[in-house]
């Protein structure tokens, strides 16, 4: 199986202007996305932004009103789900309760008229691959949630799909199992080199597993980029605030294309912004805080995060900001301390001043 995948038959996927409405609701509003062979792309976005609908269109369960789905350059928009070469894992375990693990994994092979001995061998191979070599005769009710998702994954992979589609496969599991399975799914996906689209609303999951994260908003793609890129250089204020923690601090863009914020002038990154009052977007680790008896800002709370501590600070104008510091340094700045707050000298993203 590995060798077959390594040979590089992974699918490249292209979504072109997908539109799908349900009555008055526009679930997909011109979604464009390209996935490279062997890539894992996570679809991330707020509830209702169209992630699941996009995946269902990819799987063929949903027909778009317009737009196209291309796999390896071939237009499959009108190909029915059962004739598409996709494996799918859902949030709920969705195993057949009356079949044991081996029967579940072999199900798709039976549909494809693979001989029984080969089915059995393949099912055992896949169960070993997902870490359940001795569970072939266990029924779903005899398996934990995590084990059921492993079986579901083995079932999806058994037919050697060109495309693997995962719809929140970990969200029903407890935190610890979720972390383990995250790593295992990623390891398997890399090992098999299978092109994968993964829907999640958990940004940590998306950032830790994906080659690229596609942030969706209102049925469209807002930005698709590698996790570090998305975090460091969000293309829009929406992405900046959706991914990771973010401060909004009042500032002023002058004529020179620089912004003045917290008494410091910084270069502006991203879309051009006209001179005037703005909000400056700065991450908690982008602020420097120092104790200062004459300071006009005050620490109003601290949250211990482990190696770092997050300070809640009220600025002179009443703006609440968060600043992350090494925990040993934050120990010197308990609640009530007067401080000065300054941004690190890095380009920042600015946005229209939010209505207060
Ligand atoms: P969540 O994270 O909450 O699962 P999502 O990003 O997956 O959300 P979708 O489930 O794709 O979003 O839904 C997008 C929009 O389309 C929502 O407003 C939803 O209510 C609507 N919608 C989806 N499927 C249908 C349907 N079968 N009938 C009517 N409306 C639907």
Automatic annotation (TrEMBL):
Cited InterPro entries: AAA+_ATPase, ABC_SmlMolc_Importer, ABC_transporter-like_ATP-bd, ABC_transporter-like_CS, Mo/tungstate-bd_C_term_dom, P-loop_NTPase, Transp-assoc_OB_typ2
Enzyme Commission code: 7.6.2.9
Keyword line: ATP-binding, Nucleotide-binding, Transport
A GO MF label: ATP binding
Signal peptide extent: none
PANTHER family for the chain: SPERMIDINE/PUTRESCINE IMPORT ATP-BINDING PROTEIN POTA, SPERMIDINE_PUTRESCINE IMPORT ATP-BINDING PROTEIN POTA
Protein name: ABC-type quaternary amine transporter
Natural source organism: Wenjunlia tyrosinilytica
Taxonomic lineage: Bacteria, Bacillati, Actinomycetota, Actinomycetes, Kitasatosporales
